[in-house]
Design a protein that fits this description.
The chain has 388 residues and is an alpha/beta fold. The chain has two domains: 152 residues, VC0802-like; 176 residues, Vaccinia Virus protein VP39 (Rossmann fold). Helix content is 31%, strand content 23%. It contains eleven helices and 14 strands. The strands form two sheets. Strands 2-3-1-4-7-6-5 form a seven-stranded mixed beta sheet. A seven-stranded mixed beta sheet has the order 10-9-8-11-12-14-13, with helices on one face. A hairpin with a 2-residue loop joins strand 13 and strand 14. Helix 2 crosses helix 7.
């Protein structure tokens, strides 16, 4: 199976970052739409995308697309797809998730049921059997309906790519690893620049930054559903991708990455997660409240996910918290700040209008990524900055 059309879903608002990642891996992007990027590749691309992409949710193999306004059209469209090219006779197959936006068909459970029946009918005809044991490898299917256009993909990933394998312990409202990576990649930060997260929680932003600094691929220490799909991507391609990832690791780097939290227990959790990620020696975690935020050096970065005040009892604390963020930021010499929040008065309380803000969906929650740019350090030309 040489040519594949691959779909990489992502958080709404970070499509440009994911597109850049895919292009840098060497693959041609064919479409960018809300929450997903489509690109062309082969079995090797499937393996490398799963292992190397930091901001994707998963990697789907596009089986096909068709219009459907009725369940009969959904059935016939699904049945017309070449399922036998992907699913062997003993394969376990099901529609793991159905999503529908602005379409006449909107019930996920009904969509899943109709599509499963259609897949069974197609494979019964192709394999000449009336019953499937489904005791072989897993082939989960995901389907997305947008304005009555159905897009069907095989999920090669399994558990979402944000699950790197290092985060065994979490904060109450942890930021997903792939979103944390996207926040960093939306800034001009490089491994030779200072990075501080003053609300580090379980350490996700500093850990993702340290993994970037050390060249550690996000998916190299986990497994994927498609590892057993030898007819799609030979197992040696997975080994080769892991070997490539291992060759890129450089633990001799010495970045200045720091994570602070006011809760001693969270600092301990962050240290343990960093240890599991293999980057504990690259990050300094410390118990420190926002009122104690300071740094003697210039041209650093604050990249953080502070409390949003989503719980009613916390809302009254938000103005003082964001005023403190603004005060401590102004006390830092020539720094930049990048802050994601759903708190609507963030700029007002910080005391400065952001130079840019980007709407990003953190799960189902609409947030804004506020970007307060500081001056570039001497000698940092435009070529050193990421384009976003």
């Amino acid at each position: 199976m040489n040519r594949l059309e691959l779909i990489a879903p992502c958080h709404f608002g970070v499509e440009a970052v994911l597109k850049r990642e895919i292009t840098e891996l060497g693959y041609d992007v064919t479409e960018v739409s809300d929450g997903r990027v489509t690109f062309l590749g082969d079995g090797e691309a499937l393996c490398r995308a799963n292992i190397f992409l930091r901001t994707a949710e998963r990697i789907l193999i596009r089986v096909g697309s068709f219009p459907a306004e009725t369940f009969e059209e959904l059935f016939q469209g699904t049945k017309s797809l070449p399922w036998e090219e992907y699913i062997p006779q003993n394969g376990k197959f099901w529609v793991a998730k159905a999503a529908s936006v602005k379409s006449k068909l909107f019930s996920p459970s009904d969509i899943q049921s109709v599509m499963k029946k259609a897949m069974v009918e197609r494979l019964k005809d192709k394999y000449g059997v009336s019953w499937f044991p489904e005791d072989g490898d897993s082939f989960p299917v995901r389907v997305f309906l947008w304005k009555d256009q159905v897009t069907v993909g095989l999920d090669s990933t399994g558990e979402s790519l944000h699950k790197r394998g290092y985060r065994k312990l979490t904060a109450k409202a942890p930021i997903a690893e792939n979103l944390a990576a996207a926040l960093i990649l939306l800034t001009p930060w490089k491994k030779d620049r200072i990075l501080v997260d003053p609300f580090c929680g379980s350490g996700t932003i500093p850990i993702e930054a340290a993994m970037m600094a050390a060249g550690i691929a996000p998916g190299m220490n986990r497994s994927f559903t498609a590892e057993s799909w030898g007819h799609v991507a030979d197992r040696k391609l997975w080994y080769q991708a892991v070997d490539e990832a291992e060759e890129q690791i450089d633990l001799t780097v010495d970045p200045d990455i720091q994570g602070y939290d006011i809760d001693d227990a969270m600092v301990g959790i962050a240290r343990e997660n960093a240890r599991l990620a293999g980057v504990e020696q690259l990050i300094h975690f410390q118990r420190r409240g926002i009122d104690q935020l300071s740094h003697p050096k210039k041209y650093g970065f604050l990249i953080t996910n502070p409390p949003y005040g989503e719980r009613l009892q916390d809302r009254k604390e938000m103005p003082a918290l964001y005023r403190a963020i603004g005060e401590r930021f102004r006390a830092l010499d020539c720094w930049s700040m990048y802050l994601i929040t759903s708190y609507e008065n963030a700029e007002q309380d910080i005391g400065r209008k952001a130079d840019k803000n980007r709407k990003i969906y953190n799960g189902m929650m609409k947030t804004y990524y506020y970007q307060f740019s500081g001056p570039k350090p001497p000698g940092a030309g435009p070529g050193n900055l990421r384009k976003t």
